[in-house]
Amino acid sequence: MRELLEKIVAEGEVVTDGVLKVDRFLNHQVDPHLMKRIGEEFAAKFHCERPTKVLTLESSGISPALMAAYELGVPLVVARKRRPLTMTREVYRAEVYSFTKKETNEIIVSRPLLDSSDRVLIIDDFLANGQAALGMVEVVHQAGADVVGIGIVIEKAFQDGGRLLRSRGFRVVSLARIGSLTDGVIRFHEGVMNG
Amino acid sequence: MRELLEKIVAEGEVVTDGVLKVDRFLNHQVDPHLMKRIGEEFAAKFHCERPTKVLTLESSGISPALMAAYELGVPLVVARKRRPLTMTREVYRAEVYSFTKKETNEIIVSRPLLDSSDRVLIIDDFLANGQAALGMVEVVHQAGADVVGIGIVIEKAFQDGGRLLRSRGFRVVSLARIGSLTDGVIRFHEGVMNG
Fold it and tell me: Is residue A27 marked as binding?
């Protein structure tokens, strides 16, 4: 998605070889018109799968996911993050390990919000190691529902998540794929856009 | 906003005399079309104030605030919550006391995202004691910027926040005002809608 790639080049900031900061338009500050375009793009890619729900993880997945849900005309479900607590029976839950923070957190969805008739489109802002997406997949499967696709705004294609999810048969659509961030330069998977 | 009041009556759940659960359409599950309508309503109420930014607090303020920012054509800034850490100079920060959780948390906004030329519209999903809104006001004032208004989806008018904010001269627009939740019945400030 060219508009997104241009925004990443113009306003993204390479923090380390592994970390791209997009605080200016995707998470801390959000560009609502870009989110709308991203929502339209996800809707165009996935509407044939007839999703009944969009699922994302708080909080930075919410903006692109809300716009995708709006375009698709279906509810958005926001999985909640929290540290492991006492087991209760009213929620679906999965553990998600963060390689960045080196800690395990739980993601939780209230049972009444997903059931076996649902066809779920998972949306997230970033795909790195794929752990968050796999946690959401697990929650969907606990509900007996189907994952009809995974939409990612920015995939770090130099990390394992994309390969892992695709090898398990999921259709993953990433609107931008970063090939590397070496030497402070953002190289997209399809080629170099700046240097 | 009638559509919102009807949704609260149809899908809201009174948990205690003080707690209204709106997990079905406002936070855990989100109705994107209702959010769009809410965004339009906030834009209609506040566009004359010429806001340059919308500010909200993660994570349940994001959905209505994103739609308001979209309609107003301005960026959304999402203040982050976290527990106090080492002081840094690159952020605005305020402490917010939660009466529900009986704990103080910090809210943080990166300095480059707000400056003294900004006219900020604060949006949040709930207004109860007003502590979150006051924390956001403090962050805006640290930036030397102006608060041009406060837009709330659901105000618990039986708690002190609305009175507190209005007494300090802020223009507060609440799309639904709950007068009481006594005996499991949702009474709106303007009268009874169910019973």
Answer: yes
Distance, in Å, from the CA atom of B42 to the CA atom of A169, rounded to the nearest integer, reads 43
pLDDT at A33: 98
Look at residue B93 and tell me whether its pLDDT is greater than 50. yes
ipTM of this predicted complex?
0.94
Residue B192 has pLDDT above 70, yes or no: no
pLDDT at A89: 65
**Architecture of domain A2-192 in this structure:** 3-Layer(aba) Sandwich (3.40)
Q: Nearest-CA distance from B194 to chain A in Å?
A: 24
Q: Does domain B2-82+92-192 have CATH number 3.40.50.620?
A: no
**A98-141 pLDDT, tens digit each:** 887 888 989 999 999 999 999 999 999 999 999 999 999 999 99
Burial of B195 (0-12, 13-18, 19+ CB in 10 A): exposed
Nearest to residue B8, comparing CAs of B186, B190, B142, B191?
A: B186
Does B169 have pLDDT greater than 70? yes
CB spacing of B76 vs A27 below 8 angstroms: no
Nearest C-alpha in A relative to B36: A70
Give the best residue of B28, B91, B139 to mutate against chain A (max A CB count within 10 A): B28
Nearest to A54 by CA among A82, A78, A90: A78
Tell me the C-alpha distance between A121 and A144, whole Å: 14
